[in-house]
UniProtKB/TrEMBL annotation:
All copies of domain Orn/DAP/Arg decarboxylase 2 C-terminal, residue ranges: 30-379
Positions of the catalytic residues: C353 (proton donor)
Pathway stated in the Swiss-Prot or TrEMBL entry: Amino-acid biosynthesis; L-lysine biosynthesis via DAP pathway; L-lysine from DL-2,6-diaminopimelate: step 1/1
Residues at which substrate binds: R287, R323, Y327, E354, Y381
Protein name, per record: Diaminopimelate decarboxylase
Domain of life: Bacteria
Entry-linked CDD domains: PLPDE_III_DapDC
Length: 425
């Protein structure tokens, strides 16, 4: 059930009209539904109930402290890709011992910080990273728990910018090199080899590539086990897509169905070949936790009727939501209070001085100057990818809980944007 619906002709988030949100907090503003967030997390948690499993939310999708806090309280762990993200987990009251650290370029300082917080595991992506981590852990008198991010070379059939498990990608250790890399890791004194992981891509509509990747990981776990390198967890990454509402779009696999198939495979394998030895299963979902929980609320500044196109100029821009400019992503746009005005076809564009600054193209919209639009399914990779281009303060963020609104990030002011700068004396 969507928590974003029209009541009396006005689009609401749960019990609050988006016009009321705009009146109170201005625009552009990201508006999230707490109920939607909890329901998405519950889809994972319910399927994992009674199993040794951990859902490490990939916080790059949306790292607002209030979101992290709500998820932490449901028992979530976190998949991080920087020291900054770890500090956000800590600030939000999350448990660092449920944190896994992904990414190809971890710095010495980030490794130190993560070891200080005793995180669950480093997902190591290369041999030089193994050596660096071994040295850092040694210098601190610690052993770092590691898994190797293995590149299973499975085609996730998604946009090339968000496919990550193919041979040509910068991520992970090639499948064919994994065994040798594990042998190296097992010999490094300050590393404790605990798991294996992969992440093959994002916005996957079908779980077949994920299940294929799982087969490859299982194969490797068995090979390693035969050599005496026993792994305690397997991390299948994130990647389950959401429905962006584009006409003709294939519906994404339901989380519960995917997890059902995945656990069935894991159970069959454990029963047949793994002697029933326990193995923890870790997930790193981002978009499927937050994607459909938020909208980007924006106001129509002008309608501009050109010779070839009509433009709806709004106060949100590519700096607020990069996905269309970056991936030509199709994002649904809805008038908050369409009324009975006739619809016209518009390109929805922002005020930034770039032709790439568009949010939606060729959309039939019933709007007038001053009306509100909501970009739907904007909860993932929205504010986290926002910039201050054109000295635009980033949008405010609001969480709706029933009929109550909580401002969870206020709008940035221009003075804050240049506060760290100075002129040469
Ligand atoms: N784990 C790792 C190691 C990742 O790199 C990612 C996403 C995830 C988990 C979470 O994937 P998800 O469940 O959200 O698909 N900015 C792009 C998406 C980039 C995804 C990057 N990695 C977009 O807006 O479509």
């Amino acid at each position: 059930m969507s928590q974003f619906a029209y009541h009396n002709g006005v689009l609401h988030a749960e019990g609050v009209s988006l016009s009321a949100v705009a009146e109170q907090f201005g625009t552009p503003t990201y508006v999230y539904s707490k109920a939607a967030l909890l329901a998405n997390f519950a889809a994972y948690a319910d399927a994992c109930r009674g199993r040794d499993a951990l859902v490490c939310y990939a916080m790059k999708a949306n790292s607002n402290l209030a979101i992290l806090d709500l998820l932490a309280r449901q028992g979530a762990g976190f998949d991080i890709v920087s020291g900054g993200e770890l500090l956000r987990v800590v600030a939000a009251g999350g448990d660092p011992r449920k944190v896994i650290f992904s990414g190809v370029g971890k710095t010495v300082d980030e490794m130190r910080l993560a070891l200080d917080h005793d995180i669950l595991c480093f997902n190591v992506e290369s041999i030089p990273e193994l050596h660096r981590l071994n040295e850092v852990a040694g210098s601190m008198g610690k052993r770092a728990r590691i898994s190797l991010r293995v590149n299973p070379n499975v085609d996730p059939k998604t946009h090339p910018y968000i496919a990550t498990g193919l041979k040509a990608n910068k991520f992970g250790v090639a499948f064919d090199d994994a065994l040798a890399t594990y042998r190296t890791a097992a010999q490094l004194p300050h590393l404790e080899v605990t798991g294996i992981d992969c992440h093959i891509g994002s916005q996957l509509l079908d779980d077949a590539p994920l299940l294929e990747a799982l087969d490859r990981l299982i194969e490797l776990i068995d090979t390693l086990g035969a050599e005496g390198i026993v792994l305690h967890h397997l991390d299948i990454g994130g990647g389950i897509g959401i429905n962006y509402g584009e006409a003709g779009e294939a519906p994404p696999v339901a989380v519960a169905d995917y997890l059902g198939r995945l656990f069935a495979k894991v159970d069959a394998w454990r029963a047949a070949r793994h002697n029933g030895a326990p193995i923890k299963v870790i997930f790193e979902p981002g978009r499927s936790i937050v994607g459909n929980t938020g909208v980007l609320l924006t106001k129509v500044e002008f309608l501009k009727h050109g010779e070839e196109k009509n433009f709806c100029v709004v106060d949100a821009a590519m700096n607020d939501m990069m996905r269309p400019a970056l991936y030509q992503a199709w994002m649904d746009m809805q008038a908050v209070a369409p009324g009975s005005k006739p619809a016209q076809t518009y390109d929805v564009v922002g005020p930034i001085c770039e032709s790439g600054d568009w949010l939606a193209r060729d959309r039939a919209l019933a709007v007038e100057q001053g009306d509100l639009l909501a970009m739907m399914q904007a909860g993932a990779y929205g504010l986290t990818m926002a910039s201050n281009y054109n000295t635009r303060g980033r949008a405010a963020e609001v969480i709706v809980d029933g009929d109550v609104c909580h401002l969870v990030r206020r709008r940035e002011t221009p003075a804050e944007l240049y506060a760290l700068e100075s002129v040469i004396k």
